[in-house]
Structures are given as C-alpha cells and as structure tokens.
Design a protein that fits this description.
The protein is mainly beta. 2% of the residues lie in helices and 52% in strands. It has a 5-stranded mixed beta sheet. A 4-stranded antiparallel beta sheet has the order 1-18-15-14, with no helix packed on it.
C-alpha cells in the first residue's frame, strides 16, 4: 500500500504549470470577467484557442477537463472536435494535428445560471500515445466576483494544486484547501479504480507522496470535503 504523508500548511496556494513538450497554444485565454446583468439568466461564456503541434510529425491528441473550483449551481462543458456534456472530463475522440499545424476545434463553455463567483478550470491536452507529453491552460471564469484564485472568496468548493512538477518523478506534493473542517482524498487510475482513500482532518495542507509508490501512468486525485463538494486534479507519474 502506498505511504502518503499529510503535513499541515497555512498560506495562499498557487497553481503549478506543466511543461509543454510536443504541444503548445495559440492565443490561449486565462481570465474571463463578466457580469450577470450583461449575461442574463441564460447567458453563456465561451472561450477558444488553438492547439499547436510543434513537431515535424502528425500527432493524435486528447483533451481533459480538470475543475479546480466551481461555483455551486453553474455548469460547464468543452468541445474537442466534438462537444461533450457537462459530466465528461476526458474526450473520447482524439484529434489528429498535422506537423507544425494548429487545431482550432477546442471550445470551453461556462454557464453561471445566475450564480456569481469564481470558477477555475484547467484544460489539459496530451498525446494519445504518451499521456505524459502534455500542456495545460488554467482559465478563471470570474462573474461579479473577486478573480483571485486560491485567496479567500465566496467559493466553498475544495481547491487543489500541484506544488511540484507534474509529471511527478520522485517526491512531490499536492496542496489542498477543503473550505470545510474535514474531508477525504482518493486516488483513481483512468479505469476509475480507487487505489487509495485517505482521511483529511485539517482544513488546508499538503499531501507529500513518492512517485515510486505508483506505477507509471495517469491518475486522478479527488478531494471531497465534509459538505460533499468535490474537486479533482490530474496526476502523471513517470
């Protein structure tokens, strides 16, 4: 069984950026500010950018959505060649990007449904043949709210961020803020199988883990607080 250390950490959490390898972005959006008065009850925010293949060979690319924090009552979904409903986090269809070409079929949709606040979503693009070859973009949807991620705001959703390199090789850590007195963490493989469940008794802190305790591949770290709210974070182990 994998051994994970839980250490209390007070402070403001930042987000870690994954290093781009084969892929990069064209005109990526990081922050969208809007008002409910302008959007209306049925208003929708849409952002888009190009995904660039920087190599001299064609590649097959998948997309993943990772919800860092979410305003209760809002919904969101994304399109990568085809559009997926709000329950889908990983595209089932890959997009082929030719050598030194740019794919413009990605669209991210956010619907506040009349709810103000900050939703932060990380979009991950990775090779179908090598999921550790990836690049990510974190988008903050700020609707009539403070736009500072990780600082005290109206959101009660748990927050997660990498405090070390991702993909992880060796010792690393994941920062969390439960926005509640207690909660739990689970680690899942991409088959949806739980490889561990851990009790969190501190409001905020960080999880120290050793990549050597995991088989190489892609995982999902999920944290659920005592209010039943949940956030996830993709984790790559080399």
């Amino acid at each position: 069984m994998k051994q994970l250390l839980f250490v209390t950490l007070m402070g403001i959490f930042g987000s870690a950026t994954l290093s781009a390898q084969t892929l990069t972005f064209s005109d990526a959006t990081n922050l969208v500010q809007a008002s409910l008065d302008t959007l209306g009850a049925a208003g929708e925010i849409q952002v888009e950018w190009g995904v660039v293949n920087t190599t001299s060979s064609a590649v097959s690319v998948k997309a993943r959505r990772n919800i860092i924090q979410e305003v209760p009552g809002s919904t969101n979904y994304f399109c990568w060649g085809v559009c997926y409903d709000e329950t889908v986090n990983i595209s089932s269809v890959s997009q082929t990007i030719q050598a030194l070409d740019t794919n413009f079929t990605f669209y991210a949709h956010y619907l506040p449904h009349g709810n103000a606040g900050l939703t932060a979503i990380e979009y991950v693009f990775y090779l179908s043949t090598n999921s550790s070859d990836m690049t990510t973009n974190l988008v903050r949807y700020c609707v009539d709210s403070d736009c500072t991620l990780g600082v005290e705001n109206n959101s009660t959703t748990p927050m997660l961020s990498m405090a070390s390199a991702n993909p992880l090789s060796g010792i690393g850590s994941i920062q969390y803020n439960l926005n509640a007195p207690s909660g739990k963490m689970e680690v899942f493989n991409l088959m949806g199988q739980s490889v561990g469940q851990y009790k969190l008794t501190n409001n905020r802190g960080f999880i120290v883990l050793d990549g050597a305790d995991f088989a190489s591949g892609q995982y999902v770290v999920a944290v659920t607080n005592s209010n039943g709210q949940r956030s996830t974070l993709p984790l790559m182990i080399q």
